[in-house]
Amino acid sequence: MKETIYTSQSPLSTPRVFLQAVRADLGVVYRIGWQLFVRNLKVQVRQSLLGYAWLVLPPLVTGLVWVLLGHSRVLNVASSDVPYPAFVLAGVFLWQGFVEALNCPLQQLSGAKATLAKVRVPHEAYVAAGAAVVVFNSLLRLGVLLGLMLWFGVPLTGTLALVPLGLAALLGLGLALGWLLALLGLLYADVAQGLPVALNLWFLITPVVYSPPAAFAKWLNLNPVTPLLTTTRHWLLAGPAAPAPGFGLVAGLSGILFLLTWLTYRLAQPHLIARL
Amino acid sequence: MTDAAAVVTVRNLSKKFCTQLRTSLWYGLRDIAAEAWPGAGPAPGLRRAEFWSLQDLSFELRRGEALAIIGANGAGKSTLLKLLNGLIKPDAGSIHLRGRVGALIELGAGLDPVLTGRENIFMRAALLGVGRTQVLPLLPAIIEFTGLGAAIEMPVQFYSSGMVARLAYAVAAHLHPDVLLVDEVLAVGDIDFQRKCIHHMMGYLAAGGSLILVSHQPHHMQAVCQRGLVLEKGRLAFEGTTTEALDYYFSHQAGPGSPDGLPERTTPTLSEAHPVVFENLTLSGPGAVIQSGDDVLVTITYQALRPVPSVVWGFFIYTCDGSTCITAAYPPEPTMLAPGRHQLSCRLRGLPLTAGDYLVKSAISDFESRQSIALWGWEDAPSRLHVEDEPSVTKNIHKMLQQLVTVDVEWN
């Protein structure tokens, strides 16, 4: 029979047991995460008249706006070989994915506070369910984008196969940072208040709607989102296959940060519940 | 040493909380940081604005056993259940659990209002760690147990709290945990459902399950639990059979002399507003203590402003929790209250009560209308009747059966 021991000791005093518990919970996280993901989709549909149309409507409307802008030649920024609307749309859709990933842990965990305080459940399940929604939405946006690329006459090349990798790195960075912020945000409301402000500033220093001018490229590259977003956009829009400098480093660090945040959150979980 | 048969072993368990929100958040950050340094445990003493929600609590629960946790609001019952459920971690001491723990702490938690009852069964089971494939074969039994009928296909937001309780209990009950933690969940269900739950709990215990029940309803605890713990301000105040624990709780928790938590007796001053007042009610037996079978003299002392014709006075014997009137007596003929301070008395022959604590209330009423003129023990503390008995097998059986009265029987 399984024996569970609760003491005041830090789980890190028995690291093997701690990691085993994390691993043992993975199955539960998958099961609950999947159920929550399906539930979120169902709830979204049942409480609206348009139902599943809401899943594709927002990116479709954004896309159409840019098509119209491109068509009327309002925007005539001679940036590169790619039509500007396609360039911006790719950037905006990727940035949206990152922002959603960043927001999702705090949103999911705050929304489930009442349950988390009363039911013993690995909190990762909520983060996983949120992440699944982010991936789902990103893939839908990608589908819309591919359609618009054909419209703009952007060639579909082999580098498209690398896009999932770039997207994974971008979402991974967003989730890792978002989870760390959620840990603080569950305690202090300042995080939820400050996040939109910070994201607005971050948008401006990220080359989402512009190509970085050479003079500032060095500085903009210090922004960890830059190499991930630029590289993934290149892969999408038939650009160079070689990743932008710093892509590998940021992607690797994002992975490590994600794992560390996960373990830190596990350690913090009982202290957070006591204050929910 | 830990008992081999114990499924729950709690040793010197302590948990502290902070009374100030901002300070609590800061301590939270510090405690999280301390977790990252192996060997650095939580601060052993109390920090500023902290208090012990539980302190130095030890007990064991064996297979097939049910334990009632009794205590006033804020005594630490819910903290204990949260610790046992692994939601929060101890600040000192340890908890050893064998097997899977199922908890019914807050019934509404984890149910989605938009999903139907049926969909929520899967959702809730997943939250309790059981997957869809394992729930499917149990589904008919769960739905049957809820007794919700066609309502199972209705969104949960249209359920009453009793219906939510039925759904949540049915799911948790059918997943067969080794230890079931139940926190005040039966209160919202109707009588039929309460009976069903109690019946289920008995069956679960007989099948080797173990149960910890927090409730404010003595008859639930007595029906299900063999043992009881009384918590007072986070400390273990009493441990014994459920009946003993409830006795202890009702006689100590609200303070001596006011077992109902009613204010201490204050005799109102004789006035036009109170033309008749009770001054005292005493019970006395032939010896120093009252025993089962004794002849007991019940005496009331009253003061009256003026003569009051055609009244009756009576006494009422209640269980020590004040919830059940065991017996009451009125004289068949009216009497008259004389002005001034006087006494009225009657003799209760062969007290039929078993050993234990009881409450005695009294009333003086108008004979015709039965409208009360003066009361003793209704709005303030009643008199306490302590019935002694020599320790014997019979006394133990009375306790076990929660028997209150004995009757004279002629056996043929």
Description:
The complex is a heterodimer of chains A (about 280) and B (about 400). By secondary structure, chain A is an all-alpha fold. Chain A is about 70% helix and about 0% strand. Chain A has one domain (about 15-275). In chain A, α1 crosses α5 (about 125-150) and α3 (about 85-110) packs parallel to α6 (about 165-185). The longest helix of chain A has about 30 residues, at about 15-45. In chain B, strands 11, 13, 14, 15, 17, 18 and 19 form a 7-stranded mixed beta sheet that branches. Chain B has a 6-stranded mixed beta sheet with strand order 5-6-7-3-8-9, with helices on both faces. Chain B starts with 5 loop residues before the first strand and ends in an 11-residue tail after the last helix. Helix content of chain B is about 25%, strand content about 35%. Chain B has about 400 residues and is α/β, with parallel strands linked by helices. The radius of gyration of chain B is 26 Å and the shape is globular. Chain B has 10 helices and 19 strands. Chains A and B meet through β1, α1, α4 and α10 of A and α1, β4 and α3 of B. Chain A: Pfam families: ABC2_membrane (PF01061).
Task: Give a summary of the structure in a few sentences.
The complex is a heterodimer of chains A (276) and B (412). Chain A has 276 residues and is an all-alpha fold.
Number of strands of chain B: 19
Largest interface: A-B, 43 and 54 residues
Number of helices of chain A: 10
How far apart the termini of chain B lie comes to 54 Å
Average pLDDT value of chain B? 86
> Helix and strand string of chain A, N-terminal first?
EHHHHHHHHHH
Helix/strand-derived class of chain B?
alpha/beta
- Tell me, what is the CATH class of the largest domain in chain B? Alpha Beta
Report the principal-axis shape of chain A.
globular
Domains of chain A (count): 1
Percentage of residues in strands of chain B: 25-35%
Keywords (chain A): Cell membrane, Membrane, Transmembrane, Transmembrane helix, Transport
Subcellular location (chain A): Cell inner membrane
Membrane topology (chain A): Multi-pass membrane protein
Domain ABC-2 type transporter transmembrane (chain A): 34-231
